[in-house]
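User: Some background: our group keeps a shared notebook of sequences we're curious about, and every so often someone picks one and asks for a predicted structure to add to the entry. Today it's my turn. The entry only has the sequence so far, pasted here. Could you supply the structure so I can complete it?
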Amino acid sequence: MKVMLAQCAPRVGDIEGNIAMMLDMMQQAEQASVDLLVFPELSLTGYPPEDLLLRPSFLDAVEQGVHRLIKASLSVCVIFGAPRRTSNGLKNSAFLCQYTASIGVYDKQCLPNYGVFDERRYFEHGQGDNVFEVNGQRIGLGICEDLWQADWRDAQIKKDCDVYIFLNASPFYLGKQAKREAVTSAAAKQWQAPVIYVNSVGGQDEVVFDGGSHVVNAEGDLLQRIPLFANQWVCVDLESHPHVVPDLPSRMSQLHDALVMGLRDYVHRNDCQQVVLGLSGGIDSAVTAVIAVEALGAKHVLGVLLPSQYSSNHSLEDAHALVKNLGIESTVLAISEGVDCVNGMLSGVFSAWGKSETDVTEENIQARMRGLLLMAISNKTGRMLLTTGNKSEMAVGYATLYGDMSGGFSVLKDVYKTDVFALANDMNRNIEVIPQNSIDKPPSAELRPDQKDSDSLPDYDVLDAILEASIEECLSVDAIAARGFDRNEVVRVVRMVKNNEYKRRQAPPAVKVTRCAFGRDRRYPMTHGFIER
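Assistant: Of course. Here's the predicted structure to add to the notebook entry:
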């Protein structure tokens, strides 16, 4: 059996565009004389369509699209994903068609309802057989979550299929591809049949689909993997295909590619071409700028330097050096005059209330002045404003609401500070793109004299380890302290995370790269009374 794996990037809601893409691939499959063409899960609508699925007009368009694809099928059997209205509710389905006719439908049986997934909000569980005969071959079909459920896998053991095929819309997080391949390998050995895994690729709001479509033989050996983050198709002959597969890219390479794809697709799919961001001379804005240039091109990126009276000369020098290295347009807007004006407007009111002493309020006014100016540039030029804060800062609230959190998209919101440093060093591995001083100097918001992040936070290697244990692993204070951390420090960090939920709710969307990203993944109430003591 010769199979074409269509690792493609459907756009959510763009039914006409997705049909055009699929019809083009169907023609290529005919020319390549393959037996089978496999698209990802919900390839007709894109994933996840969310509440579009609640609109009857959307489902009407889906049904028309399904009919068009079936009627366009010729000698190649085509398997594609789409929602399906039934008397028992909406199903997440895989359609099989050949010679302009439908030859079978499989409805997804295991519906994920965790992390970024909300499938039980929209779909009903499928029932019935998942084995179909195509060109004399017994094909077992599954859709994404089916493969990950042990009960579903165990039910396949005696079905005697020649091959199993899975349609997927499996989001990226660091380490995900290795887990996918381990699951498909174990399933193939359990069923004693090859497994074909076809995944979507591309960014959709906060989620990135990294592809990684692959094939394993009946012994569980990896025969083929389409490169991660690549929009392409590959033909595989299950009987004669050699299995020389390169190692997976490094962790930093995967993180970098996910951020680039997530930013590029979010900007372009929202009909935008250009972005603007503030450049402080620090590592976060530098890494964000590099990602922006790689995603969109240097001519589409504007960097704005916004020095205050506390900005150091070396920070300005580092920002200018970055601009030169990247070849981007830049401008300088000093904020001191605006800050003085706002402080003057407020001074009388604060004095009347007995609140004349300088505190974090004045620091936040500086950050908000920067946000005001950047948003004004965004409004006037139509450029999307990128925020530059990282996950460590977002977790503990070390960011100013309506200040440095202002913007349309956040590149690093799901990247811990320690990984920001690792990314920067990786970006400089061949040539110095980010000024080394931006990497080496102690991180600082520069909102008061000689300020350093370490004045308010634990060192980032300690902070990130505590945060990851609490956020990704959901460990208790005692369990985290048992790893050798000071218990009082753990309590302080966990409480900062709790107390700043309201800020994160108002932050821009970002690229999801960890197992538990703020937003769709992690949904805590802003107001609650649970405190670990």
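Suggested note for the entry: The mean pLDDT is 93. The two ends are 61 Å apart (CA to CA).
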